[in-house]
Every structure is written in C-alpha cells, then in structure tokens.
Sequence to fold (338 residues):
Amino acid sequence: MSERLTMNGKPVFTVPAKTVVNFDSRFDKKLLCDGITFTAGNACVYDCAFCYVDDMQRKAREWHEKNGVTYPPEGHSGVVIRITNAVQLARKQILSKPIEFRMAKKVIYASPKVDVAGNMELVRETVEICKVVLELTNWDIRLLSKSNLLPKIAQSLEDWSAMGVGLGDDDAVMPSERVIYGVSTGTLNDKLAAAFEGGTPKVSKRIESLYWLQNNGFRTFGMICPSLPQDDYLAFARQMASALRVDKMEHVWAEVINARGESFTKTHKALLDAGFEHEAQMFKEISEIKWKWEGYANDTFLAHKAFIPPEKLRFLQYVTKETEPFWKKQTQFGAVML
Fold:
C-alpha cells in the first residue's frame, strides 16, 4: 500500500487487488456490456451524493484499513483508492482467458466504481488499459464519465493506433470503431449539478466534450442519470434529448435516483446546502413516500419515451412484484427491468 499527496483534493491510497477485470458482473442486466467490466480503483475522485459505491464498499472497509487506508470523518467518499499495477493486472487477467473467448465479439464496460477520466493521471491509466483490451481482444469498450476529458482518451488512442502499435495486421479495427464514449449528467443546470454531483466538471463543459466526440466521428452514447423530480417532465426530457443530440448517439440510458445506502439523505442535504430548496422539497417528498417515488419514475420514463426512439432508449428501473406488470409493458418502448 502507498499514499501520495492528493488527487482532486482527496488523499490517495494505492492498495493491492486480485482483479481489475470482472468477467461476470451484473452490468449485462443493464445492457451496458456483456457482463465484462474493468475498474482501476475502489473510491472515486468525485463525491456524488447519490453514489452507490460507498454502500457497496462497506464490507471492504476493514480490509482497506488493514492495507493502510486512513479514512477521514466523511468515510469512503473522502478518499481516492486506486489499485496497484492496474494495467499489468488487467493484462494478466485477460491473457488468462482462452483465445476463443477473447476474440468473440463482446462489450466491456468501465467503470462500475470510479470515474475513468476524473483527471489526466486517470485518463492516462484508462488509455493504457484500453490499449490492453484493444491489443488482446476483439471487444468493444464502453467508457462512461462525468468528466469533460473523454476526448483526451479518444485522441490518445487514435494517436497510438496511427503509430501502428499493438493492433496487429492492416485489417485491424481502429479504436474509433471499437470505443464508445458516454457523458453522464442528470441535469443541464451547471449550478444544480454542482450541488449533488460533487467535484465534477460543469455540465456545459461535459456537453462541449460530447460534441467534440460526435463532430469528430467517435461513437457515443447518452447517460441521463440520475435525474431529479421535475416540475415539467416533458420539458426536461425534450431539453435533454436536444442537448445530447440523441440522433447522433447509439443508445441513451436514463435512470432516476434510487435508494442505495444513504443516497436519499445525502442528496436531499446536498440540495438544501446549495440553496435549491424547491428541488430539495420535491426530492424529500418522493424519497419518503413510496408511491410518489414510483410516480416520479413513471413520469420520467414516459417523458423520455416521447423524445427518444425505443430502439435507443434504455431506461433502468428497479421493479417490485406490484410494479412489474406496468414496466413489463414498457419494455417494448425502452424500459429495462432490474
């Protein structure tokens, strides 16, 4: 274990791990990949109030502390945890698989736990892992970020491929054809995003980076996630579809805020602390009354359905025995039941 100074204002710890690549994740259920993911860390440089990773990593906290991680009062969200030799470990794991598996057409997704482009150091690490995947497999790579630095990854991979390194024969598929870039945001309002997507770049900057990718011929997807309750759901969905230029995207995922650990409590507090009292009140109502949360999810989906073609929309929704009949009928329009 090692500690360096800071990254995005947080203390950084590097810990050993057995895996970077997960060959049997559940992210295939969300249609983001074929069950394969990679992640080079366990705690992100950002501090989103709704993040589920904090809750997911509670069982690992004792192990992290034994390996030298010193948690501040705010806990998991107050540190950055990276994996020792992540690139080399990813290479070793992938090479352990049969050539038939590696050459099959699949999609690998990054990242389930940490942002792939939170700063330039992480951009460089992500680029190196992507090179490993591009060299050793026939998989497409889906990268999701709340950063505006995805173009840096795209350009680095194109420069690398232009040098003729690692991609095999002259018929090799170039990175621009195998990497799919997604910018995530739950709002188009810079100030509102700053309230509950802690430490992330302005949404307007993220949108600019998305346009650069689209204008330069890179594959893109959308992630309208997570979005808050709205006064006018149709207006929100219309503005989102227009801003993201859905017509230029392969798919668009969308999701409301779900109850994971302290996500509801933290999001409500973040909105209040930032002065968004109206938004905080609407959120408080849906978080306290189950049927109102379901109505919020329904309204959000129906609004997106009006502006995103069903073959592109992938609205992620956790269902219960009571709500399953409604959502099952919506799968033909882009609902994905979880």
Q: What stands out?
A: The chain has 14 helices and 15 strands. The chain has a mean pLDDT of 94.
